[in-house]
Amino acid sequence: MSKLNKESSVALYQQLIDEIKDQIASGKLTTGDRLMTEFELSQEYNVSRITVRKAIEVLVEENILIKKQGIGTFVAEKKLTRNVGVFMGFTSNCIQDGKTPSTKLLAAELVKATTVDVKNLDLKPGEKVIRINRLRISDGDPVVIEETRFSQKYAFLFGENLEGSLYEILAHNGIVMSGGKRTINICNTTKEEAELLEVEENEVMLYMKDICVDANGTPIHSCKSIINPRRYEIIINTMPNKG
Fold first, then answer.
1. 169-216, pLDDT tens digit by residue?
2. Residues 72-105, buried b or exposed e (16+ Cβ, 10 A)?
3. What CDD domains does the annotation carry (predicted)?
4. Domains and CATH numbers, the chain
5. Exposure string (b/e) for 199-209, b if CB count within 10 Å is 16 or more?
6. Contact criterion met (CB below 8 Å) for 199 and 228
């Protein structure tokens, strides 16, 4: 490890922040690694424990490090980041964040529309819907369970590779998302969901419901997503109130 430059105009705590970030970027520190204690870091870099503590606080605030009470400070798992104000597919989201997306198809079937389907997809009672259930994976880690529903006019999807991007398939068929409605809540995992997401049963997850429409406001699909918040960070951009 390099020593900090006390003659530099850059504050010592910021130099330590940069040093720890460099260690992570170079792979010398990886996800789950435990950092030295405050005392050990202060000895290693010849700085006060106050300086070390400030650097760690900033890195924890930035979600780069995570503190575990009574155990120590660890390199946090880098989360997939999503701006929920933008309708972006999981595949594009991963690529934008420099991660490798993959998908496990759990089900693709024609089922009877529920009352909620009739409302969300503007259907007639008694119609059927296409139900596509998938596990979305980022850099090998399961992140999201998605259940997407389409009306029968999208039956061509059964002939497509559903382990890729649905949005790309739709775009190739001239169908483009224009907007919609998004609702975010929380839920607890069932035993099956917990196994898929590799978490504990009854663990709290993010629960997101989408209704996507085209430029004419016609519903294209609805989607329910169960999201592991330990691997997925949601960002909401806000605008100042000028009223």
1. 999 999 988 888 889 999 999 999 999 999 999 999 999 999 999 989
2. ebbbbebbbebeeeeeebbbebbeebebebebee
3. WHTH_GntR
4. 12-75 (1.10.10.10), 80-235 (3.40.1410.10)
5. beeeeebbebb
6. yes
